[in-house]
Amino acid sequence: MRKGILILSLLSGVMSAQSYANQKVCVFDLLGKAGESYKLMEEWSLASKAWGAQVQLISYQDESKVDKDFKEGKCDAFYMTSMRARAYNKFAGSIDAIGGVPNNTIAQKAITYVLDKRNSKRLITNLGKDSYEVAGIGQIGSAYIFVRDRNINNLEKAEGKKFAILHYDYAQKVMVDRVGAVPVMSEISNFIRKFNQAEVEIVAAPAYAFKPLEISKGLGTTGAMVNFPVVNVTADLIIRNNKFPEGFAEPSRQWFVKQLPKSFAMVKRMEAEIPAKYKMKLSKDDQLKYQKILREGRMDLTKQGIYDSTMMTVLKKARCTIERTNFECSVAGE
């Protein structure tokens, strides 16, 4: 009898281990396996063995394909930009709210806060029969505006100019509409190409994209990078809970928090590598105008349910802790 129970127990353990074996994680990186995001996920996959997983990474350079394959069940988890992952968890995805995170210090505070244990319930989303959980957030960097003509040096001069935006991120369209530019719907796989080939005059991108996507081709001798961050770009690791061991997401999130100093050092290095000749500063008046437009857009999008209101309050507190004299710190809202 005891022998039979022992055999059943062993079989149960084997079956349990098999049920959590070989999780397929689809990873988006513009540079494929050569990119920093993919390299980060390779380190994570090794660490995940200690939490009971046996991960198989699948590399993608087309983010829309990641989303499609995840929906079709070909992936048990994905790692892609928060702008697209927001549909699976609005709380974490709202870190990338337009103008919400104006520098790296606030970005690091925001990511650390979101991944804290006190927010574990907010990081689980039930959609229909499926349960999704945020198991990590990685920093990609602040996105800056690039213009093909440095004469587009204030908001008024952006009016009527073609601006490439990611079609699935409604927030970008709102921002572009508010400055009077013409939104040109694009994919993350082709928006820089449109800029380089003069199909659009303006684009927003992080330093991560500068060298590999050869943004300097679009800048030529007349273009510039407006040295004012409009959005902070992160990437979310979203898992299907029933495909991973119970409690898996918590150690995974803490692992991502420990990687943040290294990730931010990488971002700073990439920003420093952009030649100074391209960088153009906005006047203080124009910076204030941008901040007000982004704030109005952010508040409007929160009312529409695009952004999470709790996250907007958190981000405002973080901004006003760092920049106490900012105009928004003395006005109500968010």
TrEMBL record:
What Pfam family is a match for this entry?
A: AdeT1_2
Species source reads Acinetobacter amyesii
Keyword Signal: yes or no? yes
Protein name from the UniProt record: RND transporter
Q: Does the keyword Signal apply?
A: yes
Signal peptide (residue range): 1-21
Gene3D superfamilies per UniProt: Bacterial extracellular solute-binding protein, family 7 (3.40.190.170)
Could you tell me the keywords of this UniProt record? Signal
